[in-house]
Write a structure and sequence with these properties.
Blueprint: H1 32-37, H2 41-48, H3 65-79, E1 89-93, H4 100-111, E2 115-119, H5 122-127, E3 131-132, H6 133-137, H7 151-161, E4 166-170, H8 177-191, E5 202-207, H9 228-237, E6 242-245, H10 257-270, H11 276-283, E7 300-303, H12 306-319, E8 325-328, E9 330-331, H13 334-337, E10 350-353, E11 358-361, E12 376-383, E13 396-401, E14 416-419, E15 422-428, E16 431-437, E17 440-442, E18 445-447, H14 448-451, E19 459-461, H15 472-477, E20 486-488, H16 493-496, H17 503-530
Parallel strand pairs: 1-5, 1-6, 2-3, 2-4, 4-5, 7-18, 7-19, 19-20
Antiparallel strand pairs: 8-10, 9-16, 11-12, 11-17, 12-13, 13-14, 15-16
């Protein structure tokens, strides 16, 4: 369900109807030149702006035993120049707090220009100063681009990975079999080495298999791929013969007893092994027990369903008491209006916005500076052409992004960036269809699926009445760093432990057991050979 499915906000008689509000007032905050630049400002600066990347200095001597093992495996492979040296296929697993990002930085510093650091989402890529794997390898998105590259597209792919020998993919649990099949296909297209997995490139996967499974695709380990490309992905995944499992230190220096307690609670929740004491501890964070509840009024709300998210965002939008812009997308046909946002790169047929609204970017516009899918901010201004107003598309919406780190559009507001309408194409059995819309959605509340990979300073969490997707409770509660940083709607003990009866959990645990055995074999083999 999306917000447009609800009753229009203007049904509230206290709201100022969009038709009586002067939607051109915000233009006074910008020069005519700035307004003219808004639709192309990101594209222009993306081509001209040089990002001064300052990667974190990593002290190798501070590594845990398993971090050092993973690093040494990569280092040994990198320095092996023999012709018999096969591409490295390495998985590095670890839950939050085991130092995956720290290790990625060390490997990047080791491999330098021979390495591409990527992630499965824009937000995750931003967090590790990388790019999305989709952008690096020109992967298809939905129904768009699901064919072999030719001409200039193929040349651009070959140029982008020509000198790269190693590709790191973070948050790999979000990859499904079909996407992984396309990764194998694109690497082979880029190198021309069709007889070698990933075209002879080395791949390093990092992440936590306990996260939510991929949306609209099967997990990498699923025994029954859905099509030929999925089968290719399944086979490529099983070429990974080296695994390192990063472990949580039993008592990290400086951790409080509360932090250790919360960490251990999450580890049990991850496998459906929550105890009665865990349940009672979580209930101490239900709204009626939180003494500083007012401090969480502005926190991000996490819900399981799109309907709950839409309802909450609708409530918050109407509370703003600002005129609400009902913005219709432009469509190439009547059929295009009916296509879901998932098949239109996240673009909604209708968007509701107002000044001061909390919003999320739904597309990777410029991930390296923070303008990525999942980036959140606040609407500052809505800029319309002189002869237009809602429900027409505006020229741009000025959004203040908290974590933006790129060039300045307006010197008085260094974090404010113009977000402009984007046109995407979707292919169906009856042809191609276009939608033009702002890549924004309201974000006081988001789904637990959308929160995956985020670290939130505060959160108000509702895990729902059942574990409809294996891992949803673990992912939701794991978005914060401490129990005191969240409010949790009460749940029964049976609800908390319902993950245990999930067939999908059993499949995942079987795969984790296989990977654990590979990790033991990897450790033994490497130590025997190198020490």
């Amino acid at each position: 369900m999306i917000l447009s499915d609800l009753n229009t906000p203007f049904d509230n008689s206290e709201q100022t109807p969009e038709s009586t509000y002067d939607w051109h007032l915000d233009r006074a905050n910008y020069s005519e030149q700035q307004i003219q630049e808004m639709p192309t400002w990101i594209k222009t600066n993306k081509e001209e702006y040089t990002i001064d990347e300052q990667y974190d200095v990593v002290d190798i001597n501070s590594f845990s035993e398993m971090q050092k093992l993973a690093y040494d495996i990569v280092k040994s492979h990198f320095h092996d120049t023999s012709s018999e040296n096969e591409p490295l296929c390495l998985i590095i697993n670890g839950v939050a707090g085991t130092g995956k990002s720290y290790l990625i930085n060390a490997i990047r510093n080791l491999l330098q220009s021979k390495c591409a650091v990527t992630a499965t989402t824009g937000k995750a890529a931003y967090n590790i100063r990388g790019v999305t794997v989709h952008s690096l390898l020109k992967l298809p998105i939905g129904s768009r681009g699901n064919k072999d590259l030719t001409g200039q597209s193929l040349c651009r792919l070959q140029e982008s990975v020509n000198n790269i020998e190693y590709i790191i993919i973070d948050e790999y649990s979000m990859l499904g079999q079909v996407t992984f099949g396309w990764i194998d296909k694109r690497c082979k297209q880029a190198t021309g080495s069709n007889d070698k997995v990933f075209g002879g490139k080395s791949l390093i996967l990092t992440g936590d298999p306990g996260q939510l499974p991929p949306v609209a695709d099967k997990p990498l380990y699923h025994a029954k791929p859905s099509n030929a490309v999925g089968e290719q992905g399944h086979q490529a995944y099983h070429m990974f013969d080296k695994v390192v499992k990063l472990t949580v230190n039993q008592r990290v220096q400086g951790m409080t007893s509360e932090q250790v307690q919360f960490r251990d609670l999450l580890l049990r929740l991850r496998k459906g092994d929550s105890t009665v004491d865990d349940w009672k501890l979580l209930l101490t964070r239900q709204p009626s027990n939180v003494t500083n509840l007012c401090d969480f009024e502005d926190s991000t709300r996490l819900f399981y369903s799109n309907e709950q998210v839409a309802n909450y965002n609708h409530e918050q939008l109407t509370k703003l008491e600002h005129p609400i812009a009902h913005i219709n997308a432009r469509h190439s046909s009547a059929f295009a209006k009916k296509i879901s946002s998932d098949d239109m790169s996240g673009l909604e047929p209708v968007v509701f916005l107002a000044k001061c609204a909390r919003v999320m970017l739904t597309m990777n516009l410029w991930s390296s500076v923070g303008l990525c899918n999942g980036a959140t901010g606040t609407v500052v201004d809505i800029i319309y052409q002189n002869n237009h107003q809602p429900p027409d598309l505006p020229i741009a919406v000025i959004v203040e992004f908290e974590n933006y780190r790129g060039p300045v559009f307006n010197e008085n507001q260094p974090l404010c960036i113009p977000i402009y309408p984007i046109t995407v194409t979707s292919q169906t059995e009856i042809g191609f269809h276009e939608r033009q819309q702002l890549p924004l959605r309201l974000a006081w509340a988001i789904t637990i699926h959308k929160s995956q990979g985020l670290t939130l300073p505060k959160a108000w969490i509702d895990i729902g009445k059942s574990e409809r997707t294996a891992g949803v409770s673990y992912v939701a509660i794991g978005r914060v760093k401490s129990l005191a940083s969240c409010v949790i709607e009460p749940m029964t003990y049976e609800r908390l432990t319902s993950l245990k009866s999930s067939a999908n959990l059993q499949y995942r645990l079987e795969e984790e057991n296989r990977l654990d055995q590979l990790a033991q074999a990897t450790s033994s083999a490497f130590r025997t050979t190198n020490y």
